[in-house]
Amino acid sequence: TIENDYHSDIAFYSKNLFDRSIEERRIIGEFEGALNRKEFVMFLQPQVNAKGELYGAEALVRWQHAQRGLLSPAMFIDVLEKAGLIYKLDRYIWESAAQKLKEWKDKGAEQYHISVNISTKDFYFVDIYEIFTGLIEKYDIRPDRLNLEITETALMSDFDKNMEILKQLQEYGFKIEIDDFGSGYSSLNMLKDISADVLKIDMGFLRASENEAKGMDILESIIVLAGKLGMDVITEGVEMEKQLTMLSNMGCGIFQGYYFSKPIPTNEFEDKYHIF
Ligand code: C2E
Ligand code: MG
Ligand code: MG
Ligand code: MG
């Protein structure tokens, strides 16, 4: 009966909630130790042109857990954000990226950038300007090699203040990338108020648009618009050749997706793309 279904739904739902809160407490409890033991690792996913030539890389964290194996960010980023701990992980990954760029520079490969993710919570807990400019000085690397990814949703949460910080970073020489564009609500209006360098079209937006005439028109319009506003466009989540062809025809020049490569360990990345 409907009533039974209703009750079993609730039971299922609360069991899930219960399991989830145990899981969350476990992650929070293990976090600092894992960070000290260097269980968090920076993977790199290539961003390439249609020929597959390297444009840059995105740093994506994985947790090499002693008992549970390799954990994906979906399992812990939200939890760490809620717990006010994400800034500790992010600082670590930002520094890993800066270190890697320094190594590449010393080995004569200064042409590639690494993009790092910034969580909206980071703005509240640390001085982002100081951290990033500090990394540039400490590692003696170019600011336009350590790109900053921020989601449109994160930006919207405190637009004026966060925008101001990003503008200062941009003046210092950093490149700003709008991540997951098309997954939020504020999309087009926001482009007027922000001068980002790169627009990253969300994978979900690509999926939702690609098999529908109207969706394709919108996708193409956004690519054209971004170009007019002077931004590079990267489409995320490209898995199939026909997507690559479609997006190329629409004027998108840079791609990030499994069609080319999943995020991989840095040494594999360096081999695959002959970084040095
Ligand atoms: P994001 O920044 O939008 O990163 C892109 C995500 O899409 C990555 O997931 C990547 O592996 C995935 N992806 C790329 N191409 C494809 C594809 O062709 N197919 C599919 N199915 N997926 C693809 P990942 O690594 O699991 O990271 C998920 C999210 O976690 C990231 O989304 C980002 O928001 C967050 N994240 C990852 N690393 C960090 C970090 O160091 N700090 C913070 N604050 N967030 C991070
Ligand atoms: Mg990102
Ligand atoms: Mg994204
Ligand atoms: Mg995302």
From TrEMBL:
Establish whether keyword Membrane is in the entry. Answer: yes
Per UniProt, the keywords (alphabetical) are: Membrane, Transmembrane, Transmembrane helix
Q: What is this protein called?
A: EAL domain-containing protein
Domain spans labelled EAL? 24-276
Report the source organism. Answer: Jutongia hominis
